[in-house]
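Input.
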Amino acid sequence: MFGKKKTHTYVSGPRQLIVEKQPKSPVSEQFRTIRTNIMYSNIDTEIKTVLVTSATPGAGKSTTAANVAIAYAQSGKRTVLIDADMRRPTMHYTFEMTNQRGMSTAIVNDVPVENIVRETEIENLDLVTSGPIPPNPSELLSSRKMAHLLKTFSMHYDMVIIDSPPLLAVTDAQVLSKITDGTVLVTNVAENNRDRLQDAKNLLDKADANILGVVMNNKKMDTKKDDYYYYYGSE
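Output.
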């Protein structure tokens, strides 16, 4: 883990970090199940960099990425969460930080990695925000510098979780899926469209992505009290 001082500037309220706030809830247990399934998804090859994406906006991919990252951190894994959505970034809001520097500044200005990594209040979890929104996100994400940064993070952390834009909106997630160990596809069951989900899978297949599974978001549980449920299954 990179050495640094904790420098927080609070700008907004947290967003559904349920694994931190309610660790004993059924929903938190489902995020831990996702973590376990990722860990055992490849027996021969260690999964250290995981991309979280969706077919369309509003599926809950960013919330999923944040909570899975927390689940890894709580298990004792040194974890870094990277906001690679350079179009509509949200992680700086979620963790109540500024976004003056991040992935985009590291790629464009050759800023040292230790200058963009931020400690969170959660033990074992660091965050890299997107940085200022650039005019050419896809070019930055497909650059050699981006691939080098991911390799650097995977050397210093046990797990790297990456949030990205939706697949059907832009090419960013496709680009990132080529340089990560695995991809998790998030879909909102309440608004699920099979055709769009299939189109998203086809795009990942074309990129030779390693699809680890699908998270079905907003699937109701059988209990009367809990109706916010995440299920993880094979593709």
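The longest helix spans residues 26-39.
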